[in-house]
Amino acid sequence: MTDTDVFRALADPTRRAVLERLMAAEMNVSELTANFAVSQPAISQHLAVLRQAGLVTERREGRRAFYRADTAGLQPLVDWVDRYRRFWPDRIDRLKTLLKEMDQ
Amino acid sequence: MSEDVIVDCDLAEPPEKVWRALTVPDLLAAWLMPNDFEPKVGHDFTFRPERGPDIACEVLDIEEGSLIRYSWREGDDDRIDSVVTVSLTPLQGGGTHLRLVHTGFPLRASRATLALMRAGRSLVTSMAMNGGLRWAA
């Protein structure tokens, strides 16, 4: 699992919607599919990508599988935003220094 | 509420001078990163940081002397585009108010939700409090 996997997983609007559903409640594939206008295999594919990215976990009960969001997986996203929260004020400080040094 | 990064500051220099620092490649490089920027809408350019992957950009909007907006895509093509907007407003006395907004992050959770996440608490709990995550369209 890499940060890129998380960003790639979230690039797709259906996957974001699936994740959001799974934040609200644990569901199996057929319950999830009932919420979307796409096929069950397509939902399974999205779940595989979300699991690969560490955003969704699977719990098996006999032959049945249940899915829920693992929000700790969103940490790379939080880190990314935080990085730019530090980056831009630092660069604006450099801009201020540059402006003092520039000719009119 | 989205997770935009916003920086506001007042500068002593006039907007024309600040504009040059935003749009002349050598000056832009001095405070941001080496680049092949051109002030033309639709121009594709690249910021090349000392470390880390290049940042691929496209000029989306220019209002001469007051606003510049470009897309900002870090790393490979699978990452989500974000958008940087810098706007300049003249201040009384000859200075400039600069506002930089970096927006379009994939996560549109409310600040309260993210604050809870940072504190290590479950998002599921905060979902109930905030009425859900809001994703970018």
Main features:
heterodimer; A: 104 residues; mainly alpha; Arc Repressor Mutant, subunit A; two-stranded antiparallel sheet; 2 strands; 62% helix; B: 137 residues; alpha+beta; Alpha-D-Glucose-1,6-Bisphosphate, Chain A, domain 4; 2 domains; six-stranded antiparallel β-sheet; 4 helices; 6 strands; 33% strand; globular; disordered C terminus
As a percent range, the share of strand residues of chain B is 25-35%
Q: How many structural domains does the protein architecture of chain B include?
A: 2
For the record, the CATH architecture of chain A stands as Orthogonal Bundle
CATH homologous superfamily designation of chain A? Winged helix-like DNA-binding domain superfamily/Winged helix DNA-binding domain
Order of secondary-structure elements of chain A: HHHHEEH
- Biggest sheet layout of chain B: 6 strands, antiparallel
- CATH class annotation of chain A: Mainly Alpha
What are the secondary-structure elements of chain B, in order, as H or E? EHHEEEEEHH
CATH architecture of the largest domain in chain B: 2-Layer Sandwich
Outline the low-pLDDT stretches of chain B: 107-113, 120-137
User: What is the percent of helical residues of chain B?
Assistant: 10-25%
Work out the strand percent of chain A. Answer: 5-15%
Q: Report the structural category of chain A.
A: mainly alpha
Instruction: Give the averaged pLDDT of chain B, no decimals.
Output: 79
CATH class of the largest domain in chain B, anyone?
Alpha Beta
Q: Let me know the number of strands of chain A.
A: 2
